Amino acid sequence: MEIPKITVIMLTYNRKEYLNRSIESVLTQTYRNFDFIIINNGSTDGTDEVVKQYAQEDHRIKLIHVSENRGAAVQRNNGINLAQTEFLTFVDDDDCCEPQMLEVLWNLANEHQADISMCGSWNDFNGRLEPYFIFDELLVLNKIHGLDELLKREKYNVAPPTKLFRKSLFDGIRFKENVRVDDIHVIYKVFTNATTVVAQGVPLYRFTKHGGNMTSFIHNNSLSPAILEEYLSAFRERTEYLSKKVPEIAPRAKYSELSYMISMCDKIIQNCITDCLSLYNRMVETLYRNIDELNRSTFLTEREKNILQRVTINKVK
Predict the structure, then answer these.
(1) Is there a domain that residue 213 lies in?
(2) What is any Pfam family matched here (predicted)?
(3) Are 215 and 157 in contact (CB under 8 A)?
(4) Which domain holds residue 291?
(5) Are residues 231 and 152 in the same domain?
């Protein structure tokens, strides 16, 4: 029997409504040479019976039951530790894959000797599909250009699904525990370990959007101080990390951090998010301190220039 080349890691916690569809979308892949680790992360809604049945019917499934939900990061790390294949990927328990996703990602990685291969996706709002990083061209990128695209967020972002990772990229790196959004803390570090990344924007994954998503605030007008504080802290750390590890990417990393502040200041103003006013003032102070550098930046867009002028005008006076 051929040794599996890919491990698919799925965590599940009280998502019985979506779980059958998600698991079926993995099991029916045209590329079949994979291990499938399902971690039942302390579910209380009958998920255990669903995953037990699938594990009995398909030998590729390795089922892990966890009695208490200690967060997604803990079990993602558990999945990485358990994986024994050259490559791994993550599928969320409320999302689904097109049947050819693994085959396309595997072929891309092998044809281009890539450490990370990526595809495009859809955001599924109750059947209404919106394109999410869908594009025509094939991108084969070295470390610097791969990180540059990651920070630009025009062709792909840090979300672990849609990506096939060489497992060795995670050597010495694990998802950060006890945080709200774990991928923003770690995926850029994984990209830093990659020599070549390849991306083809054909949509082969569907992100199911609903009120229970941890990142639902991205698609609506809400924003909590705790989430905003975490992003600001993570992006400050990211700038410092990348500037040290890959100095060539430092200008993009610094701009990306400040660009996020500009967009969040605009969101707070446009939606009158009063809970975030203290963080708003802190971001304005930071933007003002860096305003000369921003105005010289070739990355700054016209829209950002207009927002920057509005949010710093009182500081300029």
Answers:
(1) no
(2) Glycos_transf_2
(3) no
(4) 221-316
(5) no
Helix axes 277-289, 250-270, angle to 10 degrees: 140
pLDDT digits (tens, 9 = 90+) for 151-209: 999 999 999 999 999 999 999 999 999 999 999 999 999 999 999 999 999 999 999 99
Same domain, residue pair 47 and 156: yes
How much of the chain exceeds pLDDT 70, in percent? Answer: 95
Burial of 286 (0-12, 13-18, 19+ CB in 10 A): middle
Domain-located, residue 136: no
pLDDT (tens digit per residue) in 208-231: 997 765 555 454 567 999 999 999
